Amino acid sequence: MSLGFSQCYTDSCLYIKTETDGKTLVGIYVDDVLATGTDVNKVNDLFVDMQVIELKDLGVVTKFLGIAFNYSAKTGWALDQENTIDEMLDKFGLKDSAAVRVPICGEDRDEEITLLPSGRSGSPQRPTVQTFQSLVGSLLWIARCTRPDIAFAVHRVTRRLHAPNEGDWRLAKKIAKYLKDTKGLKFIMHERKDAIKDDGVLVEAYSDADYAADKTDRKSVSGGVMMVAGMVVGWLCKKQKCVALSTMEAEFPGSILHVDNQAAIAQIKGEDASGRAKHIDVRFKFVKDLETKKMLKVQYCESKSMRADILTKTLPAPRLSQLRGLVMLSG
Prior knowledge:
Elements: E1 6-7, E2 14-19, E3 22-29, E4 32-37, H1 40-49, E5 63-64, E6 67-72, E7 76-80, H2 82-91, H3 129-145, H4 151-158, H5 166-182, E8 186-189, E9 196-197, E10 200-201, E11 203-209, E12 221-228, E13 231-239, H6 247-251, E14 258-259, H7 262-269, H8 282-292, E15 299-300, H9 317-326, E16 329-330
Parallel strand pairs: 11-14, 14-15
Antiparallel strand pairs: 1-2, 2-3, 3-4, 5-6, 6-7, 7-8, 8-16, 9-10, 11-12, 12-13
Helix pairs in contact: 2-5, 3-4, 3-5
Pfam families: RVT_2 (PF07727)
InterPro entries: DNA/RNA_pol_sf, RVT_2
Protein name: Reverse transcriptase Ty1/copia-type domain-containing protein
């Protein structure tokens, strides 16, 4: 802060310094620091200024928080967690297990009733609740950093952290086995030239939702993929807070830009004020207000091109492979 940086409101680990000729950004996680900016000289000067805290400049990033970084002037940044995946497989006795082509399928239903025992003395062969929680924690970190293709499956097992059963343990292991088969995939970050304009960069979001697929409470799952300058910069997979009464209502909460539900688009544009939808929270009407003010453009996206599909449902291997490419996973 003494160097003129301001803490980001939405991410307390991010600090930003804005000057007339550009910006410098610093991300901090405990004692690890990652810095970038529009002027490489100012980034270098920053590390000189921070020597008072005995900070070691390791040069251009190659590894950060278990994520490997590789840069190419032609293809941009390639991120992967191959080493992290190998360590996880070894820890949970899955290094020699047979790989699988998908992380979750329609047959992976929650019909098992035998709960895992509690206690701290579990092992991969005799798992306890804590063993399950540890594996899911590893999977969650990988899903959040570089692997949106496992986010939906991981979301499924995170809902069982408090009382997992043997079926949940099998599903968690299946996700890990899928990572074993696909650990070489790289998450690519490279701008798209047509997404960069003189007045700024293109910001896009893709939104999708299932419809009451969870038999337990019939709450739908929303998925979203966020892109800046043609690069995927974030994704989410979360259960909706209320039970939707139609596919339109299920998709309304996530509808921002690219949507594959015409009824949800009509609702946003005010073409169909369905009485059934009146209970939808006022914050969803905020989207309609932005559309009216032309601060946001809502477009229809064909289901085959819907990137967020990978975050809301089980998928066959060919479709999963196609969507991996759309969310910038290559390998």
